[in-house]
Amino acid sequence: MNKLFTLVGAGLLFAQNLSAQCDTTDITGDLIINSSSFLSGVYRVTGTFKVNSGTTVFVQTHETNGCGKLEVIASEILVEGTINGDYAGYLGGTGGAPGLNATSLTGDATAISSCSNKDNTGIVQLEGGKAGTAGFGPGAATAATNGGLSSGPKQQCLNNDDAAGMIAGSGGAGSGAGASYGGAGGNGGNGGAGSSDYVGTGISVSSAYPVAGGTAGTGGTAGNVYGTLGGNDIQLGSGGSGAGGGGRSFDNGLGGGNGGAGGGLIILRASTSLNITGTISANGETGEAGGQGGNGGATGKCCSDGCDDCGEATLSTGSGGAGGAGGGSGGGILLYSDAAATITGTLNVKGGNGGSGGTRGNGTSCDYSATFCGSQSLTANNGNPGQDGGAGGGGRIKVFVPICSNATLTPTTQLGGGTGSNAGAVGTYFVGCSELSVMELAANFKLDVFPNPASNYVQIVGSESIENAQVNIIELSGRIVYSNAHSIGSEALSIDISTLSQGTYQVIVISQGVSVVKKLIKN
After folding, report:
1. Cβ contacts of residue 51 below 8 Å, gap of 6+?
2. Is the pLDDT confidence value at 5 over 70?
3. 500 has pLDDT over 80
4. Exposure of 199 by Cβ count < 10 A (0-12 exposed, 13-18 middle, 19+ buried)?
5. Any idea where the domains of the chain sit in the sequence?
6. Would you say residue 24 has pLDDT above 70?
7. Read out DSSP for 294-336?
8. CATH class of 447-522
9. Please, what is the average pLDDT of the chain?
10. pTM of the entire predicted model
11. What is the CA angle 151-156-159, rounded to 5?
């Protein structure tokens, strides 16, 4: 569905509701953004598209309207303010529920919090926390695993020396993993285990059943990297998997939070001039926290003898906290110009951090002292905290201009993966000099760059002879550090790189509208 809006003057503000899902909106004249607005879909502008300084254009999220993209096609594009596509990509997974259920093979499920069948042995089992769900998108992270079941004996009243009960806390579910796009996300960490440990003095604890703490759930797995380094494809960022739910003890744990959403998608295509001095951002979202583990506690005294001691109660240890949610991956930024281009602003596609792990459930204690009954103490230990979620990987930034040496391409780029139990990898930044035919590897031409890593000189050899090929060496920031015309073929071309700083570069060989890209590491 196309919509036509005619603007009378070049400075006239387009005052309609600018949200159009992923529909296409045609505008005759200029589209000047003077106040913060939400945009979505494709805008074809015959004149100038401009975001004024101090103004922010927010990209409608994929969750809101199934789009998550802003694409502008105009004669001239100027971004002096901000285009914010943070968290506008695919959603993260939902958080897991806490462990809630208490069961018993002996019919004593209520013994976790009250007296049950006081003169006989019995066992109580507690449900572990549940894992969050997988995220969404091509690089979505998979779900973690549930926390483990725990168990332990309840108290038993005896003629002499009553036996205390000791029920272990269950395990927290594992951490969500980070999503991937240009860089790989980080795998999720583990949840926290419930404790099976206790310390007693002058007291007997029932040995009818083992005290078995719930095992920790394991973390989810990061999604796969997708898309190409140098093709003209660009996509939304993907979502991290959800945080786990905390384990159960005397108290219930808490549910986990959602995984971080991926960054959105921003495409700007200019036919005469592209000028970016402001900020374009498509960062991934930080995951939410894992569920807290339930605290241990003690029942009332269940026996009727004269010594109201700790052996008459059932205590429970602390349960495990759950792992945090995974971060969303950075999104995509694609910038085209058919003519002039000046890009000196900031381009951000950072991955989101992993959510913090859930706190442990605390244990409890009982102390007793009486003249004729003696002294007792019993401490049920604390559970273990969950680990942080895995971090999201960085997204992708691509810039295409006709002639790299004629453009000013010195943006500040932020491509990093987030932090978490496992960090996300850095995303990609690519500068190409042919809008329609740049590709990671041309089908009919192979390029070798060696040694790699290199210190002083790098050799370039092609699978066939090409005259007057343009050879560019570009920093990941987009700055061209070497540009010259050479003949490429079976005889090695030697280029002095001794003055370059240590780091990662792109070697781009351009001939007849086709660019071949190789990564170069400078020692």
Report:
1. 33, 57, 78, 79, 80, 81, 82, 83, 278
2. no
3. yes
4. exposed
5. 447-522
6. yes
7. PPP-BPPP---SS---GGGSEEEPPPPPPPPPPPPPP-EEEEE
8. mainly beta
9. 91
10. 0.80
11. 160
